[in-house]
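Posting this for the archive.
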Amino acid sequence: MSELDLKQYIRDIPDFPKQGILFRDVTPLLENAAALRAAVDAVAEPFRDEGVNHVVGIESRGFIVGAPVALALGTGLVIVRKQGKLPHEIVREEYELEYGSDVIEMHADSVGPGDRVLVVDDLLATGGTAAAAVRLVEKAGADVVGGAFLIELAALGGRKALGIDRVHSVLIY
């Protein structure tokens, strides 16, 4: 299934979650087995020979994309969650939003020195959350091999915000 084929499974929702926003809804893609399989393969493919030993999925749709990408790469899934959701010792990273700030966390023992990590999410927009996940992984001592996204909203410049060399997006709008 080609990139153009996958785009037919992305539904545009105007004015969601607020006026002036065009929301790219991935649920039709997730609901179609062939499209989901093709999307997972397309996200994972550039990193198959990179020695990735952990995929980091960012809450919450990053879990949905990250888990099958981890399986495709023969790794486990490390979850990065919003503040206060993880039960064990954590590392945390605060990041700026358009208005205010937020915090993401990861278990402190999830990754460490020598680990090669791929950060995965469904969508790369401004890059704030993904950049915070990259810093979180680096703070834990691991190396970020790259960032992989199902969709990138290129006009929002998130790729630059990540501060890493390898960024792969399957569908670019």
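Helices lie at 3-7, 27-30, 33-44, 61-73, 128-139, 158-161. The longest helix spans residues 61-73.
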